[in-house]
Amino acid sequence: MGRLKLQSDIKAIEEEPEEYEVTPSNNASLSSLACMINSEIGAVLAIMRRNVRWGGRYMSGDDQLEHSLIQSLKTLRKQVFTWQNQWHSISPVLYLQPFLDVIKSDETGAPITCIALSTVYKMLKLDMLDLSTTNVEDAIHLVVDAVTSCRFEVTDPASEEVVLAKILQVLLACMKSKASVVLSNQHVCTIVNTCFRVIHQAGTKGELFQRIAHHTMHELVRCIFAHLPEVDNSECAKVNGGSSVKPEVGGLDGDYSSAAKLLDNGNGNSDYDSQLSSVSFTSNAPNSLIACATNDNANRAGDGKEAGAYDLHLMREPYGILCMVEIFHFLCSLLNVAEHMGMDPRSNTLAFDEDVPLFALDLINSAIQLGGASFLKHPRLLNLIQDELFRNLMQFGLSTSPLILSMVCSIVLNLYNHLHTELKLQLEAFFSFVILRLAQSRYGASYQQQEVAMEALVDFCRQKTFMVEMYANLDCDITCGNVFEDLANLLSKSAFPVNCPLSSMHILALDGLIAVIQGMGERISNGSLGLEQAPVNLEEYTPFWMVNCDNYSDPNHWVPFVRRRKYIKRRLMIGADHFNRDPKKGLEFLQGTHLLPEKLDPQSVACFFRYTAGLDKNLVGDFLGNHDEFCVQVLHEFAGTFDFQDMNLDTALRLFLATFRLPGESQKIQRVLEAFSERYHEQSSQILVNKDAALLLSYSLIMLNTDQHNVQVKKKMTEDDFIRNNRRINGGNDLPREFLSELYHSICRNEIRTTPEQGAGLPEMTPSRWVDLMHKSKKTAPYILADSRAYLDHDMFAIMSGPTIAAISVVFDHAEHEDVFQTCIDGFLAVAKISACHHLEDVLDDLVVSLCKFTTLLNPSSVEEPVLVFGDDAKARMATVTVFSIANRYGDYIRTGWRNILDCILRLHKLGLLPARVASDAADDSELPAESVQGKPLTNSISSAHLASMGTPRRSSGLMGRFSQLLSLDTEEPRSQPTEQQLAAHQRTLQTIQKCHIDSIFTESKFLQAESLLQLARALIWAAGRPQKGTGSPEDEDTAVFCLELLIAITLNNRDRIVLLWQGVYEHIANIVQSTVMPCALVEKAVFGLLRICQRLLPYKENLADELLRSLQLVLKLDARVADPYCEQITQEVSRLVKANATHIRSQMGWRTIISLLSVTARHPEASEAGFDALLFIMSDGAHVLPANFILCMDAARQFSESRIGQVERSIHALDLMAGSVACLVQWATGKEEAVKEDAKMSQDIGEMWLRLVQALRKVCLDQREEVRNHALSSLQKCLTGVDEVHLAHNLWLQCFDLVIFTMLDDLLEIAQGHSQKEYRNMEGTLILAMKLLTEVFLQLLYELSQLTTFCKLWLGVLSRMEKYMKVKVRGKRSEKLQELVPQLLKNTLVAMRTRGVLVQRSALGGDSLWELTWLHVKNIAPALQSEVFPSEGLEQTYHGGIDGADISGGTISAPDGTVASEG
Q1: CA–CA separation, 1398 vs 1221, rounded Å?
Q2: Closest CA to 474 of 433, 437, 425, 435
Q3: Catalytic residue numbers?
């Protein structure tokens, strides 16, 4: 005989054709129904005629009466065609009763009964019985009663199976018919009971029939519990009202009476033999399920008679919650029976151990699926699920059968989805004692068990809020375990392939991990990232075990609450660790964190011991057993934390002693047991009259436990010995023998462990633990429902991120199939998204580091064609795309990970695989200021063509260049044509790089957060390496150049945040410039990059202008060997910078840098033109000459005028610029622009500027070139004579004569006498011009100078120069022109001095030094001048009238009347 198998896809019996589905509604249909009934009567009679018993009666004669069954059928045949009214108005009893009599008769055989059952089935399927039918309630009850009481003679096994199948078919049709709602609770229970008896008998039948029976039972349960959501609440209240008192929980060994009665029914007729026998479903005993229901309800209600009558009344009402409670209780009890029968050596344990639980579990699962959340409205059903069902699920969850385990897990998943708010501690127990135990091989589970448990866990992880609710309700509850943390660790560890290839188990665990991570990602996408919470900090002591939430449904309340609880829980764990090392310091630590009061009280310490996991139970036991008064108080408070209500003594004692190790000293044991006994008697005083009785019995149980379970005790205590030892301990009376016997056997079967469980293994779910769980479930905090927002994801992800990244990485490393690759990539992206959104930068960096390893780009490449290898490696390509996707999407939160990303970019760069625009700064000309110089638009950046010309040549340029390189054929060295596989690999590589969008990292860097941007810049500087003096490898230089390009690009892209980057960028460029001694691409890129930065940023960052311009001093520090090749290009860039940004350069320091760069070019053959062009732009018409740059410009112009590079015209032009700048001084001095005037005050004095100007011109006056020299003299004369409006101080003029005029004259004189004509041509003309300049300036300033006390010295200086020039020899002989010019100039000067009253003979008293000294010198020049200037009184009077208006110029004095007085 085959075993029972639950397969719901096999139909019970093929249903009748669809034509029967039509409900009669007119005369035609009425007649068709009559015909149908008539034909069915005929069929039954025909079958009966074939039987000898019935046939003989037909042939006997009319005098012999027919059998009542035949008579009733014939009577119905006569009436059926006479009924003209609607069928619904005719009582169905009339046409059903004859067939029901046949079914109930024990004289009919199987074929006759089968036809009668078919007829009833057809009537039910035709909906002849519905709610509008007359007397439908009696009719449907009659059908159920008849079918469940069916009797027939068995003639052969096949016919018996057919009849049984028809019975099942009719019962199922009754439940599915429209009239089923009028069935009573009693009838529904009877139907289920009958179906179960048929299933029990089916064990001896064929496989097909067994499956039909199971399927029918399954459909019945589905049909019944589908009605649960429709059950009226009033009925619910009526039914549940009598069951408010919950029955005592008696451990895992339940009462099997109800299901055992069902199994006993019909056993006598279940075997088939060759003789005729009768099969009956009636029983002398009451219906088993009903009896079970009424008895159970009577016991629960307290008063048996009243409750029994009450429930019997309810059982006769239309079916509803009562029958569902009894059926569900019956299904749960089947699991108890299975456990009980599985231990019976006479039973077929293999078949029973799997099939019966599977059958029961399948039915329970169907009931839960259909009832759904409606179970919450019915406390009796909910109690069954919470206690009996879950207790059995915990038991069967550890079954070795994968089928049973799978079904258990399915039920728990359904319960979670519908009833999780009421199953908080049950779910914790299931995961702690079943899933965590079975999913790990170290606890002895088979691979099949591990796989089923892992599949179940993954299914739970796919529920969007499962992990959040586990964390909020369990991990954040100090009385519960860290289920979320344990499950997350389990998944991550199970995904690790340790010394073995990747298996389906690893992939399964990975799926679970990624499901959790993706759930977090989806919650982020839903919007709010949760409530912003300040870090939890306990500022004052609050009893941690009394922390409550005001509103468990409002996230504004429960989110801070659970975070606070989790903080407390973590602190308690740390405190436990301290306590285990040193109890005193542990308590002090908890006082310091405000988890215990400053002054310890017994209750707080007791609650710390009671609710803190991880405490050393030996230390706790020693503390509690101590005789110190405080410790004794703690012990009693500790006992007070237990709930022993309605517990057996041994169960309570087990719970109590499981929390610490019982001390070994007898006095300590007594103190502990006294506290326990006092607490137990307070709560469970039904049998024990006082606490002394509880103490004595507790002692006795400890002794019995030692006696029974200590191997050193050879002679064990018997039950009689135990009872004898406990006589008269209950207040002088004996305890009930049954009570003591139960305790004795409980201790014998299950040891009370008085020592802590060894090892790190998971504890088992014992009966006492279950009892404690049920007690705790009544007091536990309400279940917190999580919604779709990420309130706690930050905390959860922080716990699991590290193991998750490691697990995904290991699987990705070991995987070989692309679907697994994609799963891992999805996980990586989800981790990145969560890390970024919750600002977990360290996690994101770890992820980037892991991913970069898989790109293979960081591995030392030893292969010849790394590009092709990369193209063939799908894993590497996917990892590469993922790395850069993360960099582009979540770059804001990458920190140290930039270094790894840059390593990958550099590797691609070395392979020539980067797009051409990676280092582009993405700054178009449209961003530049719309300024123009001389009508031409400015280009404020180094042109791309120019940059390209400066760049280091590479093996390839960009993606297509690399691709074409593969395709190209070298004409000198013939190469083989690449294969299709190589081309395909290369194409894949190119496509991968294009997907990466590497250039976006830098072009979009303007959107990066400040810290990330700074880290990116630092990573670029780090990747470039420190520049080395001397020659490095070309590859290193290429890398450094590329990194510098990227650094400059992000600098230009982030001009608004240049302050953030500038220091690092400047130092890096400075290192390059200062360490380079030979021209190279790196220093070139550094210099021109720096210039480009200044060009681009000066218009936007005026506050940084000085800083930017100061950086250009680096260019001046270039080694001459480096600077020379780039001088022209540098000057061009500086020129562009000046022309575009002259108005933005305000400070003296900035101008000093710019003009220094221009000045350097004055003597450079290639660069001088560009340099002078820039200077011309600055100084033309004083356009950009400022007090801050005046002296600098003069010095630069002087250098250009002195430069022999270029044409003389440029030098003359430079001199003109210098001379023209006097206008600026005049403008500033006259104060036409207040702002400029203020600038002049802040900078150097205008007089000082003028002095520096003429000093510069003085130097040029000594130039070898005649044109330049003479033009310089003319320019100097303009500058000396054109500053009347400036009002220079007198002392400045003295300085001017000493430092400029006299020095120039002396220097020219020295040159004329000491150099050849070839070196200085036509010095005579220069000397003449110089002498004229002297007299002109002296005469113009005569009045001002004459007021000075040092005028005499100045005048003597003039005379001495004239004397020297009179005597100078040019080309070996005295100059005739000078000998003519000097006396004339002197005469004019003397006349002017006489006229102004400067040179007048004073009183002879005391002498006159000026007068005397003057003529002393004049005699050496022209002895006759005195008589000419002072001839006679008349002449003196003549001159006196008109000299004031004389014009002195060119050595002549023109009188007002036009006459000219000249020498002689």
Answers
A1: 33
A2: 425
A3: 665
